[in-house]
Amino acid sequence: MAGKDFGGRMQVRLSGGVPLSLRGTFSVLAGRQSIEAVTNQDGSTDRVGTPTAPRANVTFKDSGIDLAALMEAPRQNIVITEEMTGVTHHFIDAFFSGESENNRINGEVSGLTIVGDTYRRTGG
What is the CATH number of domain 10-122? Predict the structure, then answer.
């Protein structure tokens, strides 16, 4: 049932069909702006909105993918599918940002974020 089930098998597919095997978790930041609180000298508060792009922090298995090529790849549509929940996350015109960390002890690649011009969630 939507909203009560989480986890299960998840798949990431790049536009060219290349799969990434997620490790641990991924976090979606779907909002289009960040709100920061500002306290004025008289104790009153204001807020400042800063535009942001939809994004997802990901950690995945080191499957031998060329990380330099991944970072320099043209923008593409990236899809993350949650099989158990039926939810699909679409990052449109997306790219990877950040600095990849390749942990040679456990085979994880971390430090990367998927950033898209548009985010759409379907299903679930």
Answer: 2.40.30
